[in-house]
């Protein structure tokens, strides 16, 4: 019987597991790195233990340290969450040797599915359909290219030990194969310590549909229906839903049966997900789906299954790990309604989805209800660092129908207010609202195909946001003047002699967005603050409330937004989007903005993994220059125009800070 549980993970999944464990009356034990000393999961657990420095290899991947903590804390069981050690057979064995229950499948089952090539061979033997491809041991680059030629382009290069889209590349043309192979191998080596790959035929109009399975130690196996995870970017899931739109009953039955057979074939136990690729070029059909891989752990997207079945999968995991029977039989499990999940990332879609790091100056999420669930691992004030995955929360919505759940999701996203880092909230709203998505007609190429619509060109802040920003700044200065603590000692608003009682006063407030500067005239009257912009008028009596939200009447309509003040900047958050405006610093007379000119800089701290250019090279716009590994992903920095390289300031293996100059170009005018 399990009475105490160590959670060998961090972030939202650690918080998620702790919630269920506590509901079951278990004592919870958290572990953390130095970077996570003040993290939410540390605060939630009954006790917490330091593992080591921030890098995962020195903390969350240290099996010896985690087992030492398990012994010291007298933990009965270890839940690995997802990622890190969750699919590490050696760790499962080590837990057994230490007399601690591993909340997951047997080590042999992890090994059987851990390598995609052997897993596919097993599935073929079990009668489960697999995608045509090369799954052999020969890893010679020329040989693999030859196999790709025989399979026929487009093909997928996939890490043998991969998962989560890492070490995976789609190749449409033979001329691009070598470069994609090298990149996939580097990413696979960094993520899994194994750079072997396999080659698969890329299925036309592919839909990623996976089936949740569960097995106990008494020979029982059930499935909890499917999830559609077709909306992906760089093979990483962005939006998931259950059930899959357009799924015929006979195909659902066939996939469920195949998934259960896959689990039985390897003597599975616990929660697992069997992933299939479905050819949707002629609609979903029961004879056109193929096994891709099995994830021998709880999935990030498990909440959508919980929402439509009413079951707590972590509860199931803990009961099965404790030797109990599965809570339900197959015929007792049904589908109720429809659910979506979106992954809220700290990243900037307008800058090729580069991860965004920094302190969460504001972190507002929608309130939970029967239709809205929020899984988050961070709080306002937490730091989004370079060390871990940039996912900061998951939003999950439910409705009687797909359209109901989709509307709930749009409403939930509109309530997201984040400042301090960029997020993909607006991008997610574009996905949810796109006609193709609304019709359920998307496949795994959806984002690439509609990227221009989903990530529209960067536009200036809307007029109402400028007006709200100006009013918030004015209110802040007025409040400061009333307490005599304004930062500008020369402002007339610091005059507390009562001169405003004689009439209206005016001030110009400058809001700088990127390279554009807007000047708004603000008037202070007996009734409050007034301003106007582009023919639109705004007024406010008590502009900012106690929750930090600015309220104003704009053209007669009441509008509110979240605001966050920082040094010489203000962020306005509205409808899921945020805009940060710099405020002129009267003491800053240097005007030094030379850093961004004449070259390419590191967008964030990371490690250089590839350099494609040298001094003297001429490059075309979009040509790859340098590959940077950061936040568990490899990012390619490309040429911003047709230019000549004058210097390269970084080499493979260098650890560079964000903002560091990497490549310098000759001045085209010289």
From TrEMBL:
Q: Which GO terms of the molecular function aspect are on file?
A: ATP binding; ligase activity; metal ion binding
Biotin carboxylation domain ranges (all copies):
1-452
Q: Which residues cross the membrane?
A: none
Q: Which UniProt keywords apply?
A: ATP-binding, Biotin, Ligase, Nucleotide-binding, Transit peptide
Alphabetized SUPFAM superfamilies for the sequence: Glutathione synthetase ATP-binding domain-like, PreATP-grasp domain, Rudiment single hybrid motif, Single hybrid motif
Q: Looking at the keywords, is ATP-binding present?
A: yes
User: Locate the Lipoyl-binding domain: which residues?
Assistant: 590-666
For this protein, the record's InterPro entries field holds: ATP-grasp, BC-like_N, Biotin_carboxylase_complex, Biotin_carboxylation_dom, Biotin_COase_C, Biotin_lipoyl, CPAse_ATP-bd, MCC_alpha_BT
Q: Which PROSITE patterns match?
A: ATP_GRASP, BC, BIOTINYL_LIPOYL, CPSASE_2
Cofactor(s) annotated in UniProt: biotin
Name under which the protein is recorded: Acetyl-CoA carboxylase biotin carboxylase subunit
């Amino acid at each position: 019987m399990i009475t105490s549980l160590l959670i060998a993970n961090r972030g939202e999944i650690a918080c998620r597991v702790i919630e269920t464990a506590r509901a079951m009356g278990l004592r919870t034990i958290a572990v953390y790195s130095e970077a996570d000393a003040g993290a939410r999961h540390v605060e939630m657990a009954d006790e917490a233990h330091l593992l080591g420095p921030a890098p995962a290899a020195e903390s969350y991947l240290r099996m010896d340290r985690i087992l030492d903590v398990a012994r010291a804390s007298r933990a009965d069981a270890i839940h690995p969450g997802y990622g890190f050690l969750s699919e590490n057979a050696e760790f499962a064995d080590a837990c057994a040797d230490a007399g601690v229950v591993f909340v997951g499948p047997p080590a042999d089952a992890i090994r059987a599915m851990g390598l995609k090539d052997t897993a596919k061979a097993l599935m073929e033997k079990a009668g489960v359909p697999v995608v045509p491809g090369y799954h052999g041991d020969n890893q010679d680059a020329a040989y693999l290219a030859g196999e790709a030629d025989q399979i026929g382009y487009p093909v997928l290069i996939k890490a043998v030990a991969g998962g989560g889209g890492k070490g995976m590349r789609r190749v449409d043309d033979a001329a691009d194969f070598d470069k994609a192979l090298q990149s996939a191998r580097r990413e696979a080596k960094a993520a899994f310590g194994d750079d072997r790959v396999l080659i698969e035929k890329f299925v036309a109009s592919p839909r990623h549909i996976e089936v949740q399975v569960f097995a106990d130690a008494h020979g029982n196996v059930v499935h909890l229906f499917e999830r559609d995870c077709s909306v992906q970017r760089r093979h990483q899931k962005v939006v998931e839903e259950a059930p899959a739109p357009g799924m015929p009953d006979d195909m659902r039955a066939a996939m469920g049966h195949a998934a259960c057979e896959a689990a039985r074939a390897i003597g599975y136990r616990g929660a697992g997900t069997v992933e299939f690729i479905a050819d949707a070029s002629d609609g979903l059909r029961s004879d056109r789906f193929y096994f891709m891989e099995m994830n021998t752990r709880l999935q990030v997207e498990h909440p959508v299954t919980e929402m439509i079945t009413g079951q707590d999968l972590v509860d199931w995991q803990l009961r099965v790990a404790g030797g109990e029977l599965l809570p339900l039989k197959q015929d007792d499990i049904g589908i109720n309604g429809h659910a979506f999940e979106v992954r809220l990332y700290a990243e900037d879609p307008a800058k090729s989805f580069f991860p965004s790091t920094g302190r969460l100056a504001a972190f507002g999420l929608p309130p939970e209800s029967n239709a809205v669930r929020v899984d988050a691992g961070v709080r306002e004030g937490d730091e989004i660092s370079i060390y871990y995955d940039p996912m900061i929360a998951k939003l999950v919505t439910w409705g009687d129908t797909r359209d109901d759940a989709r509307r709930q999701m749009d409403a939930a996203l509109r309530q997201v207010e984040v400042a301090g880092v960029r997020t993909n909230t607006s991008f997610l709203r574009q996905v949810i609202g796109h006609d193709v998505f609304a019709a359920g007609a998307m496949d795994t190429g959806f984002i690439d195909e509609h990227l221009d619509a989903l990530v529209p060109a960067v536009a200036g802040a809307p007029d109402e946001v400028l007006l709200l920003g100006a009013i918030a700044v004015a209110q802040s200065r007025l409040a400061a003047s009333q307490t005599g603590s304004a930062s500008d000692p020369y402002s007339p608003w610091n005059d507390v002699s009562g001169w405003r009682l004689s009439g209206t006063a005016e001030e110009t407030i400058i809001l700088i967005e990127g390279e554009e500067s807007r000047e708004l005239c603000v008037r202070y009257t007996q009734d409050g603050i007034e301003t106007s912009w582009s023919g639109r008028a705004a007024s406010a009596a008590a502009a900012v409330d106690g929750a930090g939200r600015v309220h104003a009447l704009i053209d007669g309509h009441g509008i509110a937004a979240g605001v966050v003040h920082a040094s010489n900047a203000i962020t306005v958050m509205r409808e899921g989007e945020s805009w940060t405006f710099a405020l002129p610093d009267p003491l800053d007379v240097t005007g030094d903005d030379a850093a961004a000119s004449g070259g390419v800089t590191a967008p964030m701290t990371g490690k250089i993994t590839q350099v494609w250019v040298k001094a003297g090279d001429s490059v075309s716009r979009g040509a790859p220059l340098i590959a940077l590994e950061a936040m568990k992903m490899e990012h390619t920095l490309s040429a911003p125009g047709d230019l000549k390289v004058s210097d390269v300031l970084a080499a493979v293996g260098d650890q560079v800070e964000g903002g560091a100059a990497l490549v310098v170009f000759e001045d085209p005018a010289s």
